[in-house]
Recover the amino acids of this structure.
């Protein structure tokens, strides 16, 4: 199993645990979400393999995925999504600031799957360090 983090990849590796990405929201079908279970080890990719992505980490799910309306996201999810770090580093998420994305989520009536996880292993040793977490980098 794998999850592509694309825009938020830099937040997976932040040393400060309070700022490190530890959850993600996904627009999955229930059948796909059911494949991901608490305790499962999952490959984290910087983007989908079919677009030239690289496996950058191993993560462990810390609970089963669950559905949550975007408008009901708790405030501390800002940090768990890695948005505080990305905002501080002036990074963009799909062409917008993390704050703009967060604000649009809070106004949305859409429901997403929440996947909570922890970093188990950093696999970036074969990837140039400058490829990640560079200020002003735009992830698309």
């Amino acid at each position: 199993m794998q999850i592509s983090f694309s825009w938020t990849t830099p937040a997976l590796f932040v040393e400060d645990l309070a700022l490190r990405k530890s959850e993600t929201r996904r627009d999955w079908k229930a059948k796909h979400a059911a494949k991901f279970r608490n305790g499962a080890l999952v490959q984290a990719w910087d983007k989908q393999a079919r677009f030239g992505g690289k496996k950058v980490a191993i993560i462990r799910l810390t609970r089963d995925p669950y559905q949550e309306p975007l408008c009901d996201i708790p405030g501390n999810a800002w940090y768990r999504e890695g948005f505080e770090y990305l905002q501080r580093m002036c990074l963009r998420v799909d062409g917008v600031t993390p704050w703009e994305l967060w604000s649009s989520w809070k106004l949305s009536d859409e429901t997403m799957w929440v996947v909570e996880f922890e970093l188990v292993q950093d696999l970036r040793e074969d990837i140039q360090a400058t490829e990640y977490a560079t200020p002003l980098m735009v992830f698309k």
